[in-house]
Amino acid sequence: MTMTEVSRIVTLDPDRNVPGRRRPGFAHTLRAEWIKFWTVRSTTWSIVALFVLGAGLTVVVCAAAAKDLASGAAGESAGSFVTWGLMIAQIAAIVLGAMVVTSEYGTGMIRATLAATPRRGAVLAAKSLVLTGTLFVVGTATAFAGYLGGNYFLDREGIGLALSDDGVLRAMFGSGLYMAGLGLLAAAVGLLVRHTAAALSIVLGTVFVVGTMVFLLPGAWGEWIGKLMPGNAGSPIATPASFDPMLLDPWAGFAVFAGEVLTVLLVGYAVFRRRDA
User: Fold this and answer.
1) CA neighbor of 100 nearest in space, from 75, 69, 123, 70
2) How many CB atoms lie within 10 A of CB 233?
3) In 3D, which of 146, 118, 158 has the Cα closest to residue 29?
4) Does 116 score more than 90 pLDDT?
C-alpha cells in the first residue's frame, strides 16, 4: 500500500482502527440529520407555508368555484379542485428540499457533517429519508385538510366528493408522494450546484416554466416531451381529476417522475462522492 493510499483512507475515515472508537452507525447518522433538519428555522417556515398554501388555497378556491362547478359553467370536474392548493404549495416543498443540502454548503457545516460521518452514501441516504418522510406526512396531511375544508363548500352545492370516489383517496396520499419527490429532486439538484438560488432556479424553472412551454413545440413529439417533464408527469397522482387530460395516467406518470428523480439523485451522489466539500 502506497502512502497516497494510506493518506486517502485516513482522510475518508479518521477513526479507522482507533482502539475504543466505534464508527457511527446509520442510526446515528439518521438521528444527526433529523436534529439538523428540525433545528433550522427554514424547515418550520417551509412546512407552515406548505400547509397554509396547500390547504388554505384549496378551501378558498373550492368556496369560490363551487357554484360554477355545480352549474357546469366552470367546465371542469370538482375533482380537479380538491387538491388545487398543492399546485402552489409545491414551491415550499422545493425550497425545503434545496435548503436541506445547499444550506450546509453555504455555512460550511458540510465539512463537519462529513468529518463525523465520512461515508457519504450514508449521509445522503439519511438526508433523503428525513426529507422525504417529512414531506410525505406533511403533504398528505395538507391534502386531507384541504379536501375536508374545500369539500364542505362542494357538498353545499351537491357536488361533494367522498373519499371512496374514484381517485380521491389516491390523490390524498399521492399528494404526499409528489411533495416528497419534488423535495428530493431539489435536494439532488442542490448536490450538483451547491447553491440555493441556482438549485431553486433550475427546479422551479423546470417544473413551472419549461414544463408549460414545451407544449408549444410543434407536432406529437412536443406533446410527449411535455408529458414527460417532471412536474407534468408527477402531478396527476396528486389530484382525482387532472385539469389537463393530455397528461399521463397518475401511476404511469409518477413512475416516470420517480425515475427522473432517481436519475438526478444518482448523478448528484456520484458528484458528491468525488468532489471536495
Assistant:
1) 123
2) 25
3) 118
4) no
Residue 35, C-alpha cell as written in the block: 436534529
Reading phi first (left if > 0) and then psi (alpha if -120 to 50, else beta), residue 242 is in beta
What's the pTM value of the predicted model, to 2 decimals?
Answer: 0.88
Indicate the SS3 state at residue 249: coil
Q: How would you label 217-232 residue by residue, b for 16+ Cβ within 10 Å and e otherwise?
A: eeeeeeeebbbbbbbb
Contact between 42 and 136 (Cβ < 8 Å): no
The 3-class SS string of 164-207 reads CCCCHHHHHHHHHHHHHHHHHHHHHHHHHHCCHHHHHHHHHHHH
- Side-chain-facing half-sphere of 168: CA atoms under 13 Å: 17
Q: What is the pLDDT of residues 91-115, one digit of tens each?
A: 999 999 999 999 998 888 899 888 8
Region 113-122 average pLDDT: 89
Separation of alpha carbons 134 and 252, rounded Å: 24
SS3 state at 246: coil
Q: Dihedral through CA 57, CA 63, CA 64, CA 69, nearest 10?
A: 110
On whether the CB atoms of residues 233 and 257 are closer than 8 A, the answer is yes
Q: Are 237 and 253 in contact (CB under 8 A)?
A: yes
Q: Where are the alpha helices (DSSP H) in the chain?
A: 3-12, 26-38, 41-51, 57-71, 86-107, 109-116, 120-156, 168-193, 196-204, 211-213, 219-228, 230-234, 250-274
The stretch 29-54 carries a mean pLDDT of 94
